[in-house]
Amino acid sequence: MIPALADLPHPARIRIVGLSGSGKSTLGRMLGQRLGIAHLEEDSFHFTGTNFTLKDKAEVTAEALRFTAEHSVTGFVTDGFWKDVHDVFLPQINVVIELKYPLYIILWRLFWRTFWRCWTGEKLWGTEIQETFWTAVQVWDYDNIFGHMLRQWYASKYQGDEKGKLRETWLREGWPKNEMIDDDSVWKGDRYLIRFNHPSELEDWLNV
């Protein structure tokens, strides 16, 4: 049974997952405000420069550790499911929210998000990184946002959904503690995997 928002563990340490365009960051900001906890987009500490250049893994890990150390007592919510920070987040979190919407909804949302970012010249995550109409239409490019999203959707639907299996394993067994995480920061209580298959389900949950 899905716990109500008010019944989530305290402190709530939440990780929101889903395909690009599903609404992870929007939900993350909303939950941060509703629950009074810090919100962080995992993308925000992975990229640097002006062209989506990936940061060094050690730097990424250090930033993730700083964030959790600062907010583990009061709670936090992140959006994303970057593999390179699993060992930081998965031992500490107690809730995973998965937005598993139909492809047509995600495509529509991603189209309008990308269009708006390109039209306004929005700079992402406080960096100089911007999306452009040219990069948006280069669907043949491996890093194109639409191509990336469709590959992830195909893998989850037709190639075994390894990320989904990993989340199920986390729900059943937790995540092995490692030397980076203090024992007091490791979550030892109940864990929840909450999946929404349509935006209306999420809206109903938020409005309870």
From TrEMBL:
This is P-loop containing nucleoside triphosphate hydrolase protein. The lineage of its organism: Eukaryota, Fungi, Fungi incertae sedis, Chytridiomycota, Chytridiomycota incertae sedis. It comes from Rhizoclosmatium globosum.
